[in-house]
Design goal:
Layout (H helix, E strand, L loop, with lengths): L1 H12 L2 H14 L4 H13 L3 H14 L4 H20 L3 H21 L4 H12 L11 E4 H4 L7 E4 L1 H18 L4 H13 L3 H14 L4 H13 L3 H14 L3 H13 L3 H14 L4 H14 L2 H14 L3 H20 L5 H9 L2 H15 L4 H13 L3 H14 L3 H13 L1
Antiparallel strand pairs: 1-2
């Protein structure tokens, strides 16, 4: 077993690729070894090869369906893959990963129900859908997870039901390990998604009492207070988080608080600090674009939103850039004066194409925004995609309530 010992030594040192080769050598010598196959799957997970890791874990479960490390490992890989899809706005794939994770982790919980970590993973699977639109979420959940005495069949659940299942799973984890600050924090996030703000505040305060130097908990508490429009407490929590950790997330959220308070100068400084802390953090740039828009700097605002689209998909920047592209197009058609740089972005930097990509991803996650759907329809028309434009314009027409806005949508719909 020299190869296996060598592989373990590589694992301890962090040389995962070398460890994987050593474990693969062990498997070639002993095809029935379970430990080496499990470690290879774990290494693939660590290296971000989640789909390959899932295949390996499923191979282990073929011969031993109740092997707990493989059940837990597949669940963790499904969640990691789902989070990757969530960041890339591939939302339907997120639901597939959530469903698969719920089923395999439920099997793990049945094998050994006393492990708090398994229940926490089940909670994470249920809460992953919190940012998705309710119309999209429909997941088959094992009946045993939904109610006591449930059978082997599954039950379809919507977003509300899935989040309530997540709350129950986190609660079970806390029954087994009540002093885990991370679980209290995760429970609070789900409660906030369910609009149970008072319960979320209590859970976050409990998490802070257990781990007072955890910056992420202070940030979450600040966000909950911000949702309640208690700006003073939100500012206090975010400043406290910055004292513990200088992160782009803290600075960005503090900038949003200042922006809501009308303190544009302080908001701009906060967003600049976010960019300094992490230049690739999209929301820091989005915040500065919003400040420029509020202050009336048209050219700078559109350019910042354009920059955000190249950093990655992000709802607020996608919505802002699409709005600027449409307003610039309207101004050009009317013959109004347009900033030179904005005109250059539209004509020479594929402004309409990028605007379509941005608004498409935004509307997938926010299907109730009738204005965004109308703008997307206009951009589709400019690209010559008339059928696609007609489809989203019809969706906008069904949603719009304001009489003036409805007239505009109907005019666009008639033209298409």
């Amino acid at each position: 077993m020299c190869w296996e010992a060598l592989a373990d030594a590589y694992m301890v040192r962090g040389s995962y690729s070398a460890a994987r080769k050593a474990f693969e050598k062990v498997v070639s010598l002993e095809p029935d070894t379970v430990y080496s196959k499990l470690m290879i799957a774990g290494i693939k997970h660590k290296l971000g090869h989640y789909q390959d890791a899932i295949v390996d874990y499923q191979g282990l479960l073929t011969n031993n369906p109740d092997y707990l490390p493989a059940l837990r490992g597949e669940g963790e890989s499904q969640l990691a893959l789902g989070q990757t899809f969530l960041d890339q706005f591939v939302d339907k794939n997120v639901l597939d990963c959530v469903q698969a994770a719920l089923h395999v982790l439920t099997r793990a919980a049945l094998v050994r129900p006393g492990l708090a970590g398994t229940w926490r993973l089940l909670g994470e699977a249920g809460s992953m859908c919190s940012v998705l639109p309710g119309e999209m979420v429909e997941v088959m959940v094992p009946s045993k997870l939904v109610r006591v005495g449930g059978g082997d069949e599954g039950e379809k659940m919507d977003k509300q039901g899935l989040l309530e299942v997540a709350v129950r799973c986190y609660t079970k984890a806390l029954v087994l390990d009540g002093d885990n600050a991370g679980v209290w924090h995760d429970l609070a996030l789900v409660q906030a998604a369910l609009q149970q703000m008072d319960k979320a505040v209590q859970a976050l305060r409990k998490a802070i009492s257990l781990s007072p130097r955890q910056a992420s908990t202070w940030v979450s508490l600040g966000l909950v207070y911000a949702k309640q429009e208690d700006w003073a407490l939100a500012q206090h929590c975010l400043v406290r988080a910055l004292q513990l950790e200088n992160s782009a997330l803290c600075w960005t959220n503090l900038g949003v608080v200042y922006l809501n308070l009308g303190e544009q100068t302080l908001a701009n400084k906060a967003f600049k600090e976010a960019q300094n802390a992490e230049p690739s953090y999209t929301r820091g740039w989005t915040g500065q674009a919003l400040v420029a828009e509020v202050a009336g700097f048209k050219s700078e605002s559109m350019d910042l939103f354009r920059h955000c689209t190249f950093l990655g998909p992000e709802p607020e920047s996608a919505r802002g850039y699409g709005d600027w592209v449409c307003s610039t197009m309207a101004a050009l058609e009317k013959g109004d004066k347009v900033e030179t740089h904005n005109k250059y972005i539209l004509e020479k930097m594929f402004g309409i194409v990028v605007g379509v990509d941005s608004l498409s991803s935004y509307c997938e996650r926010n299907p109730g925004d009738d204005v965004a759907l109308c703008q997307l329809g206009v951009l589709y028309e400019k690209m010559g995609l008339v059928r696609s434009g007609y489809k989203v314009m019809e969706m906008s027409n069904k949603l719009v309530k304001n009489t003036v806005e409805k007239d505009k949508v109907l005019t666009n719909l008639g033209r298409l």
